[in-house]
Amino acid sequence: MKIFSLEGIDGAGKTTLVTRLSQELSIATTQRKEFLCESEFINKVGSKLKDVLWNSGDSRDLPDEFWLYLQASWHVLLRNSIYNRFRDETSVVVDGWYYKFLSKLLANGWESKDIDLQELYSLVPQPDVTILLCTSPQIAWGRKIYRPTELGLHSPQFSKRKLGQDSFMEYQSRSLDALKSMAKARNWYVIENADDYHIDELLNIVSTIISKELD
Questions:
Q1: Residue 27 and residue 30: Cα distance in Å, rounded?
Q2: Which helix (H) or strand (E) holds 191?
Q3: Which of 42, 60, 88, 181 has the largest count of CB atoms under 10 Å?
Q4: Is residue 139 classed exposed, middle or buried when 0-12, 13-18 and 19+ CB atoms within 10 A define those classes?
Q5: Residues in domain Thymidylate kinase-like (predicted)?
Q6: Cα-based distances in Å from 205 to 6, 48, 49, 191
Q7: How far apart are CA 42 and CA 31, in angstroms?
Q8: What is the per-residue pLDDT across 80-99, written as a single tens digit (0 to 9) for each?
């Protein structure tokens, strides 16, 4: 089975596209925050980890180092869950992996830290194929209401600035630059100016990539 990951900044349209792939093309899909395994123990651990990562509120009280190890652990469990749930499928598409989180750390200046992010996350299972949706932050801004973490809460540059549209544009632009660098280094598929395409066109592009990779 091949795992395909759609990547992009917050508001890039990853989850919307994954939902349409499932509904209209009957392609097996899942969301990055979904988790289910036959093991009661793993489900219990995964549920607690999910609550800490996404249901514990927004705060600067814990450092990035705390979250990066939790994210790594989550994606080990996610890979386990995907292989358990979709064992009879030839492929499954996920609305993201850890790359967006990693891009935000890089946007926050983690190149100068002693911890080698690329080396640390090389121990985490990777998708087989990654497709980057290059959506402009200007377009993404109007698509939904964002959490403080998506506006730059954990970025040192905004520690004394009001979070809002300006911080979102700056933060997400740096994140997109980091994702593009990863795409080049890792040979991802890249859909430039993804916001210029109608959703049906994106469906066709992504489904064509999937078919090509499965041939």
A1: 10
A2: strand 189-191
A3: 42
A4: middle
A5: 6-174
A6: 12, 37, 34, 9
A7: 18
A8: 999 989 999 999 999 999 99
Distance of CA 215 to the CA centre of its chain: 26
Q: Could you tell me which residues come within 8 angstroms of residue 135 by beta carbon, excluding any fewer than 6 positions away?
A: 8, 9, 11, 12, 13, 176, 194, 195
Question: Which has the higher per-residue pLDDT, 201 or 162?
Answer: 201
Q: Structure tokens of 14?
A: 């990853």
Contact at 8 Å (CB) between 82 and 35?
no
Token pair recorded at residue 176:
């997109």
Give the global pTM: 0.94
Domains and CATH numbers, the chain: 2-214 (3.40.50.300)
**Residue 104 CB burial class (10 angstroms; 0-12, 13-18, ≥19):** buried
> Around Cβ 87, how many Cβ atoms within 10 Å?
8
In degrees, rounded to 5, the angle at the alpha carbon of residue 207 between the alpha carbons of residues 202 and 211 is: 155
